[in-house]
């Protein structure tokens, strides 16, 4: 027994280190978001590029909220239809049927809240797609300002039209990937009875983890990082991505704030790549500039 004590002690120390590392990673991810917003506030030359995404976000979020509100009862009924139906066979069965129906009614509205959160995220990601050329240029300028002391990282001029098309294509690819994941989980929850109790939290968790990849996508695209290396980067920095994505997801739910934070998140995503670059043996930085 005594011979195993050193092993147990080492295991406990390793667990403590892992807990500290996890906590510090989450703190780093949360702090990067704040740093990105502060960076954008400080550099006024970036404000014109940040204005266009804010306008797109205002338009699309307003449209999404309006459409959701008009259909909210229908959406609630759709969630309730996937839940079991409790019937009172005898008068005394109301002792459990009554509370059970109340719980199921509440679960239905929780499902509506989850759906509303995802609708807001989709609206903001769509605004992200439409704003891709401006956000890409914003990311480029953030990188230039951040690495002003690193002349080897300076950026050369590029063709505006080709850069615009590339930004649209890359952002559309990221958006379609996220929507395919959401559709797969939603389909599983719809087909398998009771599976939505699992798939709904999974939708939120997956969204939180994928949001950092989306906001850091412009900087990653310039480095030619393939998606498999992005997934590895995500796994290696899971706690940091969780902190970053958690703040981004919650910000999407706050009225007013969700219209303004997108440029700040792209700034934070660019800083994330600069501070903690992903490893990719076959990646090469594609040098572009902010025109």
Task: Using brief descriptors, characterize the structure shown.
76% helix; disordered C terminus; single chain; mainly alpha; 291 residues; 11 helices
Outline the biggest β-sheet: none
Structural class: mainly alpha
Rg calculated over all Cα atoms = 23 Å
Whole-number average pLDDT?
76
Distance between the termini: 69 Å
Number of domains: 1
The ordered string of helix (H) and strand (E) elements is: HHHHHHHHHHH
Helix content: over 70%
Count of β-strands: 0
DSSP strand content: under 5%
Unreliable runs: 6-21, 149-157, 281-291
Give an overview in words.
α7 (196-215) packs across α10. Helix content is 76%, strand content 0%. The longest helix has 38 residues, at 5-42. The chain is an all-alpha fold and 291 residues long. Mean pLDDT is 76; it is low at 6-21, 149-157 and 281-291. The protein has helices spanning 5-42, 47-70, 72-81, 94-130, 132-146, 160-191, 196-215, 217-222, 227-236, 238-252, 262-275. The protein contains eleven helices and no strands. It has one domain (2-70, 120-275).
Short summary of the structure?
The chain is mostly helical and 291 residues long.
């Amino acid at each position: 027994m005594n011979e195993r004590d050193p092993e147990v002690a080492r295991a406990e120390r390793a667990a403590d280190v892992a807990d500290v590392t996890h906590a510090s990673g989450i703190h780093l991810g949360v702090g990067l978001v704040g740093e990105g917003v502060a960076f954008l506030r400080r550099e006024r030359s970036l404000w014109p590029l940040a204005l266009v995404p804010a306008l797109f976000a205002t338009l699309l979020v307003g449209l999404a909220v309006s459409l959701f509100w008009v259909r909210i009862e229908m959406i609630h009924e759709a969630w309730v239809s996937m839940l079991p139906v409790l019937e009172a066979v005898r008068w005394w069965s109301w002792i459990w049927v009554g509370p059970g129906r109340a719980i199921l009614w509440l679960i239905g509205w929780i499902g509506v809240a989850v759906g509303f959160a995802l609708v807001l995220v989709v609206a903001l990601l769509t605004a992200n797609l439409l704003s891709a050329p401006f956000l890409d240029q914003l990311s480029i300028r953030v990188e230039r300002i951040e690495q002003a002391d690193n002349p080897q990282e300076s950026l050369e001029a590029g063709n505006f039209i080709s850069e615009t098309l590339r930004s649209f294509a890359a952002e559309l690819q990221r958006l379609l990937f996220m929507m395919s994941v959401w559709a797969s989980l939603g389909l599983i929850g719809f087909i398998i009875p009771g599976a939505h109790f699992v798939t709904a939290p999974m939708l939120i968790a997956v969204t939180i983890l994928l949001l950092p990849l989306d906001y850091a996508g412009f900087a990653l695209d310039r480095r030619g990082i393939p998606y498999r290396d992005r997934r590895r980067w995500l796994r290696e920095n899971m706690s940091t991505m969780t902190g970053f994505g958690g703040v981004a997801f919650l910000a999407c739910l706050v009225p007013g704030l969700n219209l303004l934070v997108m440029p700040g998140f792209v700034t934070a995503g660019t800083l994330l790549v600069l501070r903690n670059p992903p490893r990719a043996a076959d990646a090469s930085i594609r040098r572009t500039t902010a025109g």
